[in-house]
């Protein structure tokens, strides 16, 4: 293939700085992939799995200090901290050049420098974009081949070398002290050093398709979002596509490929992590999934919880930081029952027995697999125009407060709901797990510019939509006073989606709550779940008193954006407070929004 001169010059510059002397220009071919795997088996970067049970599939163990995204080491470089906003780590371009670029000096002297072209989005789509990642990690190359349309196909789409997103990645010495992921939106460049893991190292994913793309989307009038895309066909034959934003490790992959427990529903998986959304000439919002693969959380994934994920993991899978059985098959918590005397090898290569205090698989262990292997993947994933979105669903992991589902009153109110989203932290990023934090639109770690401005951009997009999607909020993770989940989740989430689709058609019943529309008692099909009436009431309860405090925390968060915060969100906040105040007064007389089942 012909590589543009500009790209060759860039590769020469990176090679001169990193000291690389061996080069591999990736084509994406089968043969290339097989040869890379051979080399990684030989140097133990990969461990072969049982070839009958998992053909062409491998286990990779990352460095134990390198198992999740490191948000505190992730920076956006721009003119000023005001430009990147209070939720991003800012670094000046000069500082990055003085402190980060030198870390790459000589880093690839004894390594092969891989040049990996990749296409984000379907072939021949007007919305697709090309990136090129330089890396010294063959594991990253193998992942990019599954996660993107990698190799010659990307070069064929490379018409304008100036528009390409360029990433330089080196494992460096894998030291957390010298680990940085640095973005330059103005020049569409990314530098990542010191990590070989997931979103830190596969630059196509969070770095390109979200952080850089969100800035391009702002400038060009579209949205780059941390959203799954799923197609639902109802028993009546109506098809709707839904885009849903949940933070990392909060069930996007599960919802994208759910197996409905209500009869007659069909599901098509279009994407499980990222959506690029454009305003169509028909006034609707159209979505493509820029990715071609899944980098899914393994723990908790089983034939019961997510049969389509398990059905995808049949061949050509890279497992990262899962445990290994004596039969050389992968294992993770929740995957399958173990015999009491079964001995495994844990994610760090140590002998592990059932009942051990530590988990066998890392809580953020992952599988990488091509989306086309998913039994519920369909043709829409390759549609150049994408799919029209009927509903946007925001969601968080919230043990308290947030009801199972509610519907925003308008696009503007929906933007407020997304902007004030709170979710408990997970193992997908380093740091404490289970701590509630504001995570607007599930984009907190991924928006490449000031999120105050980003909210304004969402409002502007809404103004251009003559047929906007309805906006909803869901919470599968509410717990009762006994600490147990109130909602079964997984395939039963179709019951909530059924209500959402019913709302799109104006047939599902709802009542007004201070938060928005919530289902009436009979409106969500609960048949066969065995939930108590009290449990159902608790699932939908909106405790206005606690929400007054929640709204105040939300406002403190939003006020942090200062002048960048759109006035419309201030107005939405005031209206929420008014509705909550009215409800608390009413509740003193007759507790209609509160539940009597709070322990
Ligand atoms: O590590 S990744 O960013 O790829 C996964 C995630 O955190 O969503
Ligand atoms: Mn994600």
Task: Explain what the structure shows.
By secondary structure, this protein is an alpha/beta fold. The chain is built from 16 helices and 31 strands. The strands form 7 sheets. Strands 1, 4, 5, 6, 7, 8, 9, 10 and 11 form a 9-stranded mixed beta sheet that branches. Strands 12, 13, 14, 15, 16, 17, 25, 26 and 29 form a 9-stranded mixed beta sheet that branches. A hairpin with a 5-residue loop joins strand 20 and strand 21. Helix 11 crosses helix 16 (567-589) and helix 15 (544-559) packs antiparallel against helix 16. It is globular, with a radius of gyration of 24 Å. It starts with a helix and ends in a 10-residue tail after the last helix. The site of sulfoacetic acid (SAT) has 8 residues, from helix 7 and helix 8.
In short:
The chain is an alpha/beta fold and 599 residues long.
Count of runs of 4 or more consecutive helical residues: 16
Task: Tell me the Rg in angstroms.
Answer: 24 Å
Give the strand content: 15-25%
Bound molecules: sulfoacetic acid, manganese (II) ion
The N- to C-terminal Cα distance equals 67 Å
Helix content: 25-40%
Largest sheet, if any?
9 strands, mixed
Give the overall shape.
globular
Given the helix and strand composition, which structural class is it?
A: alpha/beta
Unreliable residue stretches: 594-599
Topology overview:
Layout: H1 5-18, E1 22-25, H2 30-42, E2 47-48, E3 58-60, E4 74-77, H3 81-84, E5 90-91, H4 93-100, E6 112-120, E7 129-135, H5 138-147, E8 149-150, H6 152-156, E9 165-170, E10 180-184, E11 189-193, H7 198-201, H8 204-220, E12 223-225, E13 228-233, E14 239-245, H9 252-256, E15 266-271, E16 275-279, E17 285-288, E18 293-297, H10 307-312, E19 318-320, E20 323-324, E21 330-331, E22 344-345, E23 351-352, E24 366-370, E25 387-395, E26 405-407, H11 411-419, E27 422-424, E28 436-438, H12 451-464, E29 470-474, H13 494-504, E30 510-513, E31 516-519, H14 533-540, H15 544-559, H16 567-589
Parallel strand pairs: 1-6, 3-19, 4-5, 4-10, 7-9, 9-11, 14-25, 25-29
Antiparallel strand pairs: 2-3, 6-7, 6-8, 10-11, 12-16, 13-14, 13-15, 16-17, 17-25, 18-24, 19-24, 20-21, 22-23, 26-29, 27-28, 30-31
Helix pairs in contact: 2-5, 11-12, 11-16, 15-16
Manganese (II) ion binds next to loops.
